[in-house]
Amino acid sequence: MAERALRGTRLGATSYENDRNTDLAPRQEVTFDCPKGHRFTVPFSAEAELPTNWECRICGALAVTSTGDMPTPKKIKPPRSHWDMLMERRTVADLEEVLAERLAVIRGQRAPQQAPEPRHAARQRKSA
Ligand SMILES: [Zn+2]
Question: DSSP for the chain?
Answer without folding.
Answer: -HHHHT----TTPPP---STT--PPPEEEEEEE-TTS-EEEEEEETTSPPPSEEE-TTT--EEEETT-PPPPPPP-PPPPPHHHHHHHH--HHHHHHHHHHHHHHHHHHHSSSPPPPTHHHHHHHH--
